[in-house]
Amino acid sequence: MNAQVFPVGDKTCEQPLNVSIRVLLGLYAIIPLCLLLQGADILFWQGYLQQTLPSSPTHFLLFQLIFGTPHIVASAIILTSNSDYFGFYKHKILGMTLALAVFFGIGSLFIPYLVFYVLVASWTVYHVLKQQHGIARGVCRLPEWAFHLLLGLSVVAGLMIYIGIFLKNHLDAEQAQWLRQGAALLCAGLVLSTLWCQRYVGTAFGKYFLWSNSLLVFSSFYLYVQQYYFLAILVPRLVHDATAYIFYITHDYNRHHRLPQNFIYSLAKRSHVPVFLVLPLLSLFLAVLLQQYGDAAVSFISEVFFGVEIRKAVTLGLLGYLALMHYYTEAFTWKNASPYRRFIAFSK
Length: 348
Fold this sequence. Notes:
Elements (H helix, E strand, L loop, with lengths): L18 E2 H6 L3 H14 L4 H5 L8 H21 L1 H25 L5 H28 L3 H23 L6 H25 L6 H22 L3 H28 L6 H8 L4 H32 L6 H17 L16 E2 L1
Parallel strand pairs: 1-2
Helix pairs in contact: 2-10, 4-10, 4-12, 4-13, 5-13, 6-7, 6-9, 6-10, 7-8, 7-9, 8-9, 9-10, 10-12, 12-13
């Protein structure tokens, strides 16, 4: 979900349920919680967490099932289950699908795997941080140059942290040190830029939001340097995914609570499932189903009917496609002119 500039407290588009900016800001409480956890591990637990936690949340099945794939699946459900949305964006969807097929199909013949990985990682980091900075831009009323300055520093620093964590086994000592130094310089620049840009923010609440985004990157960098890789990725991942779900659930409640507009919510109403729970439960169920059983099912079917075992068709193929389409479509589906925004209003 990439939120664009929005008027907080604007009553021109009143809805039964609003996105609370205070709740969104409250999600950043994960930053001090993770820092306290890391401090307690050093002071009291002799580094037990550092040695026990996986190097990335994606290696921790429960985390991946809750915060990784489900919000991507939820985004796809909203787009495809509402015929007016899909019809409105179908040309963009089909065009990007073709572009991805050509790029990865032809590119795989001569582009090294690590290049693909860095390209996708760059898009991932940009998507995650653009969402948070987009919301902050609306709250803080930043000038355009300030928004792009803070976003640019955050994305490049975040990408270095991401590569330093996920590709650490492919880096020699000198390369790893270069990444740490580069990320440190960018984080220092981010802090100084935030100090400079806060003069354009007229409210204390806006400054809290501005600094929360900068601390999101800085805390991730600190935890990365301290080799608490799980916590370093957990901080931005949780804030991003939880923020997205708040928007998704708010949208679906406002669109469907009075009169269901698609078959999913019609069935949910007949089954007496609360509107608040429909999208989270459905997306979580599909994420578990696809991640745990999708590859095995496709491999079995392909081997029985075609005599060829197709591996990772779901986790790498389908879910990879959904993730990239998620990054692409979320860049415009939540803009002010989007039909999605008819069902979103904000309150402080």
